[in-house]
Amino acid sequence: MSVLRAFFNPPSADAAGLLPLLVDNEDGSYSVRGFEVGAPRRLTRIEAKRLIEDEHVLQVPPMKVPDSAECAGWLGVELQRRISASAMAPPLRHDQMAPLDGLGSFWLGSTADVYAWLQQWASAAATFVLNSKDRRLADLLLWVLPGLPIVCAARWYAADNTERPRLLPLLRRRMIETEPENVQSELERLIRKSRGESGLTAPFLSMPRGRSERELAPPASEVIASAAQPVLRSEA
Amino acid sequence: MRLGHAYRPENPEPRVCMVEVYQLIVGERKLEARPPERPEVLECEELLGADPRPVYAFVGDLHPKLGRVGLVVAREWSSAAFQGATLCDSGGLFMCIGGFEAAGEQARKHLCELSSPSACTKETWEADFAQEVAECYKNGARGYVYGDEPTGLPSPRGEYIEFARSNNVTDRRLWTWELRMSEGPGHQNYVAVALTDIDSKHFEALESERGGALDAATVIVGDVTPNGHPFLLPRLRELLLGEVS
Questions:
Q1: CA A161, CA A140: separation in Å to the nearest integer?
Q2: Which of A15, A77, A156, B227 is deepest in the core (most CB within 10 A)?
Q3: ipTM of the modeled complex
């Protein structure tokens, strides 16, 4: 059995998603799992060591991984906190999840299974937004699967008319399978369809609401102001 | 063909890293030379006469090992700031990494032969590059950008590739052209930025906070499903190829 050594793409406390894996094959080679483009290639121990030392990957405590594990599902601790206080907390499988450095929790699975879990949760929550206009939940879903059309539709539905002109270009970027000039009509079609088909309201409506996202996380402008002016480095 | 710079943030935390990237794209800060991770990098630059310390780019390529944020930059950057070129990865050759091990004790000599001013100059590099692409890649520029292995590259690069193939350490840095610039690109030179899935969520939050989607550069997002690493996406390759905006 192989051993998980690191995640590709540093995970974030604010987001959920899928993380590719750097796996030690225990035969002197390493593999990357979870990227579907590009031929699979084995890395030497030295190459893997460099990736870790150079912080291209985030090292994790060694953990046995079955051959069927292609990626990690990721749920950041801040997102989990905010969304657990919303009407659509994710259906977590705590017995299968492992914590990581106070940043969040992860579980291993096939890419298809992990994506399906995220998709089902995000779709259900987006459908809820389309019946509740829960703006805060719509915002949080952009930290889960922002490219899912139903999530884009929920965010569009929750926005007011003053916000929509600024929002549309972001949604156009995300809905890559729809021609840019058709995105708005597609969003409105999805809203009509989902509101017509689903009546998702209770039992979630009675759950307590949390504090606003802005209270829980400093806005990025504060981060800009507080960030030391980092030296930007070139490739070497 | 456009230029690629794989940006490695000073702070890998996604939220802070995306602030750095946003500031680059909007011109609030400028890309600077990355401090060397190994002393050999400075020795290599000294041998090449690279002063001031350069900002590096690959012609038509973003290499995932060099940074997690992909910056696609217009070739006008080289018109303004060209300092030198090498017909492969200079640092890899200097340090005899991977297939460059074939150079052995000749590495420094080879490096000088494969670099400006011996190999090409500011005035000639584009024509020299175009000629090599036409002669050595069956699918021309598209083949180069998509990572095809060249055929018929003259010595010593042909020998590096042969050595790498027989030792299973093939890497496109053996034949990808490197440019060294005396300064980072002007913000108007950024064509696209390629982000990981999680980074992109932070980037968009930042855009929303600061007034909406940037139209200064195309933002490309890599998913784990179905498309993989953003540097490998066909759309990004096409942007590097320069045939789409």
A1: 20
A2: A15
A3: 0.70
- Of B147, B150, B191, B245, residue with least CA distance to B25: B191
Query: Residue B25 corresponds to which tokens in the numbers above?
Result: 């794209």
Cis check: omega of the bond before B9, within 30 degrees of 0: no
B23 vs A224: CB contact, 8 Å cut-off?
A: yes
pLDDT of residue B84: 97
Rounded to 5, what percent of chain B is helix, strand, coil?
45, 15, 40
- Give A41's pLDDT tier (boundaries 50, 70, 90): low
HEC letters along A65-105: ECCCCCEEEEEEHHHHHHHHCCCCCCCCCHHHCEEECCCEE
**Cα of A219 to nearest chain B Cα, Å:** 8
d(CA B107, nearest CA chain A) in Å: 17
The pTM assigned to this predicted structure is 0.79
| Per-residue pLDDT reduced to its tens digit, B132-168 | 999 999 999 999 998 899 999 999 999 999 999 998 8
CA gap A8, A70 in Å, rounded: 12
Which one, of A195, A190, A204, A200, lies nearest residue A83 by Cα?
Answer: A204
Contact A36 B224 (CB under 8 A): yes
* 3-state secondary structure (DSSP) of residue B25: helix
| Mean pLDDT within B11-27 | 90
Hey, what are B197's tokens?
């899935």
Residue A23: pLDDT above 70? yes
| Coil, strand or helix at B194 | strand
